[in-house]
Amino acid sequence: MSNRIPPDAFEHYVSLGPERTHAKIAEEYDVSVRAVSKCASRENWTERLEKIDRDSRERTDKRLGETLDDIRVRHLKTLRVMNARAVEALKQYPLSSAMEAMKAAEVVIKLERLIIGEPTERNAMSVEEVTREEIRSLLVVVGDDEGHDESEDDGEPDDEEVE
Question: N or C: which terminus of the chain has fewer CB atoms within 10 Å of its end residue's CB?
Answer without folding.
Answer: C
